[in-house]
Amino acid sequence: MFRLRRFLKSYILQLIIGPICKLTEAVLELMIPLITADIIDVGVIKNHDVGYVLSRGGLMVLMGALGLCFALVCQKSASIASQGFGTKLRNAMFRHINTLSHEEIDKLGTPSLITRMTNDINQLQLAVAMLIRLVIRAPFLVIGAMVMAVMIDLKMSVIFFIASPLIALVLYIVMTSSVPFFKAMQNKLDRVSLISRENLSGNRVIRAFDKQDMEQERFDKANGELAETALRVGRISALLNPVTYILAQAAIIAVVWIGAGFVDSGNLRTGQIVALVNYMTQILLAMIVVSNLVVIFTKAAASAARVNEVFDTKPSVTEQTAKDIKTSDDSPAVEFKDVCFGYAGGGYALKNISFTVDKGMTVGIIGGTGAGKSTLVNLIPRFYDVSEGQVMVNGVDVREYPFGQLRSGMGIVPQKAVLFSGTIRENMRWRKKDATDQEIEQALRISQSYEFVEKLPEKTDKIISADGKNLSGGQRQRLTIARALVGGPEILILDDSASALDFATDAALRKALKENTQGMTVFMVSQRIGTVRNADKILVIDNGELVGEGVHKQLVKNCPVYREICLSQLKAEEVDG
Question: Would you identify the CATH topology of the domain 86-312?
């Protein structure tokens, strides 16, 4: 947690004022038993003075009101600091996650990152609030109550010095036994979050396969493990209150029993015994608060470790420069030079890939499932860094570009069509914020989206739900293609982005792209021969290797892998025709 203190720098004032106010409240609270003793011994027993009792009672009310005011100031300070801390930490964490490459996000896992940004940071916010409100107050009350007991009577204070360590020992045993369970609970919560996310995002698939019962069992198991861990720590924590109360009540009985003898002998007054009982009660309550603080800070320590793990994760893909790179108009649009690439923990997914793509060319990339097609195109915008070799864009290694310059010239359509909540127009302006309605319309026409968008009552003001769930798969794909086309990118990457389109729409899309994207370099990843057949260059990928390069007729004759793919989709005469 100490490493996260930088997020509290803006709240130094609250960190000072809050504890001071709480300390002042504690001082006032420690004075109350003494005034109570004075009322009993002087106002009631000795003088029977109602006026004295009322004046002292008024002083107690005034001190209570002052304590309330100080407590409210402390509470406000704690709220400002904890909520501000949480906001700054959450913003910084979100900003850091956005700097991570695909590799780090895959490693940490989306459900875990969501849990860390919500549950873990909420736990840290609570810890900050308790730090200001109770961390100084509770120990001060314990020590102060013991000091006041010594001031009242040294012999009676021995009971306090015996009872307090025993209560503290019980707290220590219970807390050390429960700490491992609190850490385990966070990991089990990640598991519940993962299953919940999978079920919510894959609800249609689950219903299609009638797997609701199976998923319910899976969720029940994960939730049951979380509940079991919580119950185990609950059973341990349940011992806390009974044992501490037994010890405290035993101490109070000892104070009353022994104190009664001192009162009979005239060494103590009745009011002083009442004050000692009150101080023992204050110690008990303060110890309970300390135990709760230990639980809170134990959870916070586990959460802080998980949050720091995210901050400690450094992106494997980083910008080398903040300046724009000068490019050459005479260089190829894209060039791969002996590129090898492997994902973390695995072998090479791409091996010795070399090819050149001139500006304005349409390149088809085809191959079997898992051959490495998507991996190849993901290297162009530098979502991953190559293990060996170079990827060149406009004659410059992609590792030398600032991300903004490299990716601003590209229109990318990933395999999974992702749209964001908002209007169609807002989604269309992701590449170009100030895109005009005419540019948007042109992109919609090329992507074959214009017809269905025009039929909508709201047209481009149609609200898209989260992840585009209120649109069909084909409509989502066409809109993501349109989004990539807005602003006219230099390089367009279509990663199997027409898989949900019928053959007629796919053909119309390819025709529109050819007619309206002159000068644009287009990469089309597909498993359909019809999609890549008329490309200026076709790259055939098999098991991570480039096994064929050329146009359709050349590859049919010279590339067995390509011919096999063709024959699996077309008749022999169509393949050779």
Answer: ABC transporter transmembrane region fold (1.20.1560)
